Amino acid sequence: MKKILFPTDFSPVATNAFVHALEFANTVKAEIVLLHTFDAPSFDSSIFPPNYTVLYNSVELTNFEQFKDEVPKLRAIAEKRNLQHIILSHRLTEGDLTSCIFDITQEEDIDFIVMGTNGVQGWDDFFAGTNTANIITNGTVPVLCVPGDAAYRPIQEICFTTRFRKKDKKALKQVLAIARKTGAKVKCLYVKTASSDVTKDTIKAWEEEFSADPVEFHVMISDDVQGSIYDFIQQKDIDILTLLHYKRSFLASIFNLSLTRKMANYTDLPILAIPAEVE
């Protein structure tokens, strides 16, 4: 069974994302690992306060109590959506949120990460984009980013952005696997700019290779990549937008960190960010 990591601070934004995590887990037949992190009290290392242990225990207890109170609410959401069969495990961890996510992704053999993307209590940088971008750029698993205003709806139309590279095929196959489980269609979008080097023969070869799959190929000619993608998802009533990022060349790529962050900030649908190296 696959595993989904769901970091939460129990805010409304995170709770909204949890609904998406539940439904996504149901789609890909996965269990969910809930993660809540907290920071220990800071202190001057040269003068260790005699009451530091008391302070630390107090903070840990407070977070534990919140965790203990909030988890049943999430389970209630699962029951309300008839998804109580989804296995939920819990991690309450001290430390930096981003570092904890990377560590637990390795420890728990995580396959996906699902998280909210608006500024919320205590995690402003993370949900506003700074750490989210770090997770997307440096992470090793797909990340489903859920804007706070994105109401869940069944996945029927998936937009897969591509540059027709070999690495894109691996990601497309993974997206197609998700599409088959939901009965969705994948609309593969290529925005052809003045500097684009993809030939018609390449596009035709992809169309032939995936002719038996639920995917359509679309080419838009424009130098405004972000605007073209946004127009496309609006026109086609897309439910999830898929973006790839390239670790070594993302700064020079049209699918770079800046684009991913902007799309996450200005659209109200979930974005699935997939590492270019994904198998």
Automatic annotation (TrEMBL):
Belongs to the universal stress protein A family. Coiled coil: none annotated. This is Universal stress protein. InterPro entries: Rossmann-like_a/b/a_fold, Universal_stress_UspA, UspA. It comes from Flavobacterium turcicum. Residues 1-147 form the UspA domain. The lineage of its organism: Bacteria, Pseudomonadati, Bacteroidota, Flavobacteriia, Flavobacteriales.
